[in-house]
Amino acid sequence: MRVVVIGGGFGGLAVAKGLRKAPVSVTLIDRRNHHLFQPLLYQVATAGLAPGDIAEPIRSILASQRNVEVMLGEAAKIDTTAQHVELTDGRKIPYDKLVVAAGATHGYFGHDEWAAHAPGIKTIGDALEMRRKLLLAFERAEWTTDAAERKRLMTFAIIGGGPTGVELAGSIREIASISMLKDFRHIDTTATRVLLVEAGDALLNGYPDHLRAKAKVQLEELGVEVRLGKAVTLVDERGLVIGDERIETTNVFWAAGVKAEPIGAALGAPMDRAGRVQVEPDLSVPGHPDVFVIGDLAAFEQDGKPLPGVAQVAMQAGDLVAANIWADMEKKPRGTFRYRDVGKMATIGVRRAVADIPGLEFSGFFAWLFWALIHLFVLVAFRNRVVVFAKWIMSYVTHDRGSRLLWQVEGWQVTKVANPPPGPT
Amino acid sequence: MRVVVIGGGFGGLAVAKGLRKAPVSVTLIDRRNHHLFQPLLYQVATAGLAPGDIAEPIRSILASQRNVEVMLGEAAKIDTTAQHVELTDGRKIPYDKLVVAAGATHGYFGHDEWAAHAPGIKTIGDALEMRRKLLLAFERAEWTTDAAERKRLMTFAIIGGGPTGVELAGSIREIASISMLKDFRHIDTTATRVLLVEAGDALLNGYPDHLRAKAKVQLEELGVEVRLGKAVTLVDERGLVIGDERIETTNVFWAAGVKAEPIGAALGAPMDRAGRVQVEPDLSVPGHPDVFVIGDLAAFEQDGKPLPGVAQVAMQAGDLVAANIWADMEKKPRGTFRYRDVGKMATIGVRRAVADIPGLEFSGFFAWLFWALIHLFVLVAFRNRVVVFAKWIMSYVTHDRGSRLLWQVEGWQVTKVANPPPGPT
Q: What SS3 state is found at B178?
């Protein structure tokens, strides 16, 4: 039996690993060669970690599982009648069972024109581009002679108060006020303004109310301006508009919405507004029992609420799909999906966090320590655990951020600079 | 007094640090924001280290030296009459003393058309591009159905038998035959062919003869084909021609020649064939006592032989220039340059090396260990020492290479593939 899995994220890997001992041959297709530990991607964007620390070649992860082959390629079409996946380069990959775990990308709620001014982070490329934008803003601010320009360059606005937005805002305030403290001669980086904008009336939707309030307090202690209850109505090259107020900034980052990868639409199945495929209780697509959809691409309601787009949901779904493929082969009935909540956490800077574990809710330093240990433990590769642990310890002690590198500065220009100000003062 | 330094490499940094306590203001200009530890750049190209492991923001290195300011920018012209440097964005930076330490780039001996087919490594961008090419070759080889194409993809040719060529060839053989051993299902990576082509009659020009012979033996033990005594006469999209022989390969890498950065020509001083500026014994430019040139951009003969383009030469020259600027201020005579040879080393794979230290020549495992310790010791940042040490230990034990990441695969195509071969065998 030939099983094809589209996507090497948490869901796709769980399917492949769950079929480790099955008499099947698995083809895992991904358009990148690496699995990405997305929960730490914001640390790459804010120069705390390097790409290799949180990514691992899919081939390495599955190297010893001999019934899996890995294919670099992008799925373009799915033919459920002929039972094959067609890649963008024209190759056709036949399947007996298909698992679509292609994930999600940024969604701008119908304002795709904002994307150019407010990049989000879903891939390593996105994170490196955000890091580049962040670092160049300070380089420009150091040398501009225009005070208004300097203020725009030293203002950062993050749209979206979920975990990624909270983590980005806290990290940017810290890098500016602590890590970069002595790096510049003409600007005071501690004056960097960081706004976190959330349309809802509290941060971290889905967390208990007192932790949501706590997150706001902790961010404000770091110096982040938290703006709640007003939606962003415009994003352009000058900045953004919240309600009636215009914020002038060259640095807007998007952490507000996601939208499913378009390959889901190729199935012709019913979808929700964000493009997620509605799945049956056994995670198969209605009318196509041999096709499963899991992870951020799947819409699944439990107890009347949609499940969140987090790693745990995708992994548990991947486990169930592998079990259901086994069940089909053994002609046993399939199981149905039920998510067991193992808790969730968000960090706020280097020493603070909020944690919502079933039967346990806490915040502050111990939540941060707990967050750090859990994340180290679940990092895929042992090597990454060692390196990330070492970097975190050093960053905790020294506030150093080692990945402040710019290697694509072609076309870079300091704007509105006549001649530079005199030497160091 | 205003000192302008162009270039944040080993030479430029040595000048800035040497003026730490001088009553001057130093402006260090670089078109990238980081100092790069070039001797380990080949390890980034071959996925052993990450860019951040061997690069450090120039601002961080000089953060506590308050008389230095760092400017991101590219020097376009030097006006020795008006005494200013003009950047590509039009800014003019006045100087009382100027130090040009802009370094060198790849040189193709008049065959610039080879550059597109035989990339070299001088920057992080170059190293990441080489890594991308290397990894994609194996991804393509895994899925092509054309045996000749597969052979071309699994053949690597490195042109130039200096330290970089020797280190690249050894690393590529190791990554193919050991690190990637279990990663693929349809190809045998141990069959990867690696050629090292050198026009001279031995590798490692400048080393003692028996070490040059030893390097060849050690590379051949690793499975590298060493071709000596024949020059490359053609490089194109199909591969390269050595003498009368055509080698079919999609992977040609350049480690043969360097050429000085063009800013040296802006001085109007006499230059050698590679574009290096001929300097006076005090390292100033003839006729311009307030302008110094050091590092790979300077041509300096000692005992009738040109000095090599290595970090130690640049650093010692930077020290002397800082001292000569001091001497000028104190109206004392300037010193003249004399390079003290501290030795040189090259690694051949993970456990072998050759070392030529004054009064001491050795090779093999202990040379490798010595090489590793010295390189760790001279890495600029403490954090990098810890991380690189951890990675080397792990790589020594497990042969794992953690940085095998592809994040720019846009436009990637498997060529000449009809339908994929059947599943894992």
A: helix
Interchain pair A405, B89: CB under 8 A: no
Distance from CA of B105 to the nearest CA of A (A): 15
Hey, are the CB atoms on B67 and A407 less than 8 Å from each other?
A: no
Answer whether A390's CB lies under 8 Å from A47's CB.
no
Which of B128, B143, B404 lies closest to A57 in CB terms?
B404
pLDDT (tens digit, 0 to 9) for every residue of chain A, 425 residues total? 999 999 999 999 999 999 999 999 999 999 999 999 888 899 889 988 888 888 888 998 999 999 999 999 999 999 999 999 999 989 999 999 999 999 998 889 889 999 999 999 999 989 999 999 999 999 999 999 999 999 999 999 999 999 999 999 999 999 898 888 889 999 999 999 999 999 999 999 989 999 999 999 999 999 999 999 999 999 999 999 998 899 999 999 999 988 899 898 888 899 998 899 999 999 999 999 999 999 999 999 999 989 988 899 999 999 999 999 999 999 999 999 999 988 888 888 777 888 888 888 888 888 878 777 777 777 656 567 777 777 777 766 666 665 676 655 444 443 333 344 444 43
User: Does A419 contact B92 at a Cβ distance shorter than 8 Å?
Assistant: yes
**Residues facing A159 on adjacent strands:** A197, A254
**Domains in chain B: ranges and CATH:** 2-31+73-107+258-329 (3.50.50.60), 112-256 (3.50.50.100)
Chain B partners of A43 at a C-beta cutoff of 8 Å? none
Of the CA atoms within 13 Å of residue A173, those in its CB half-sphere come to 23
List all residues 6 or more positions away from B277 whose beta carbon is below 8 Å from its beta carbon: B100, B260, B264, B267, B269, B270, B271, B285, B293, B297, B298, B299
What is the predicted ipTM? 0.83
* A145 in Cβ contact with A235 (< 8 Å): no
- Catalytically active residues of A, by annotation: 167
Which of B142, B149, B167, B174 does the annotation list as catalytic? B167
Contacts of B183 (CB under 8 A, 6+ apart): A57, A59, A60, A63, A70, B138, B189
Q: Which residues of B touch A424 (CB under 8 A)?
A: 25-26, 66-69
Residues of chain A with C-beta less than 8 angstroms from the C-beta of B384: 402
B277 φ, ψ (degrees, to nearest 5): -85, 130
Can you list the pairs that B332-341 forms with residues at least 24 positions away whose Cβ atoms lie under 8 Å? Answer: B334/B282, B335/B282, B336/B281, B336/B282, B337/B281, B337/B282, B337/B283, B337/B300, B338/B302, B339/B300, B339/B302, B339/B307, B339/B312, B339/B313, B340/B316, B341/B312
Closest residue to B27, CB basis, from A2, A125, A423:
A423
The minimal CB distance from A183 to the residues B32, B59, B400 is found for B59
- Mutation pick from A20, A31, A59, A79 vs chain B, by most beta carbons of B within 10 Å, is A59
Instruction: Give A3-36 as a DSSP string.
Output: EEEE--SHHHHHHHHHTTTSS-EEEEEESSSEEE
